[in-house]
Write a structure and sequence with these properties.
The chain has about 260 residues and is of the alpha/beta class. About 40% of the residues lie in helices and about 20% in strands. Helix 3 links the parallel strand 2 and strand 3 (about 95-100). Helix 1 packs across helix 9 (about 230-240). Keywords: Methyltransferase, S-adenosyl-L-methionine, Transferase.
Length: about 260
Amino acid sequence: MPDPSPVFGRETSSRPSRASLRTAVVWDVLKDALDRRVKATGKDSLDVLDTGGGSGNFAVPVARLGHRVTVVDPSPNALFALERRAAEAGVADRVTGVQGDVHGLFDVVEREAYDAVLCHGVLEYVDDPAEGVRNAVAALRTGGSLSLLAAGLGGAVLARALAGHFTEARHALTDPDGRWGAGDPVPRRFTAEQLAELTAEAGLRIGAVHGVRVFADLVPGVLVDTEPGAAEALLKLEAAAAELPSFHAIATQLHVLGEKRA
């Protein structure tokens, strides 16, 4: 079966794409979790749920691994793009798009029906993040994994400060939702501790916490695109820093992988 990495831009050229710099850490952790689940269950094909999966940035690569993926998203346009992308990748028979959201998840999917659930870029926008996590966990089979990705507070503070918006940086630092002002397009941000608490309260055993886009959003694009070897070196730096708790506080996004307990 073909390697799904071209979807992330890793093999479309000799240099990693900007997209792959932002997704590589999450993809590597997720793929490893899926591989472990395959070995644990003895199944060649897993059932995967992608809540808020949009146009299939993760769903299509997961399907290219041979797994069955259901994408739940509130946007009809995103689901249309998903259908087209899945067809172009040759995995249309393994990808199903359903209109809905994480709060009404069991109006459109079954409980305890999935080996893995992806909840990426969802908690920032829902009214009740704790309920969103509980629903995601309730969709998992025992022993299944939840991949949770959300906006990080520290990364936003650092980005505003480096852009010279010091008042906004301080506002984000003290705001209960981590917002830098009324014009902030992200309704809510989290610390690593907050995400770990949400997942633990929902009954998950936390396997790993990673900082995502620690440096990728701060490095000038012209440097990455023109300096020989810069993109590859940055990719390795992101991977090395992702596992270190000291860098979680400045990551643009935070990734938590948890396993559903018996």
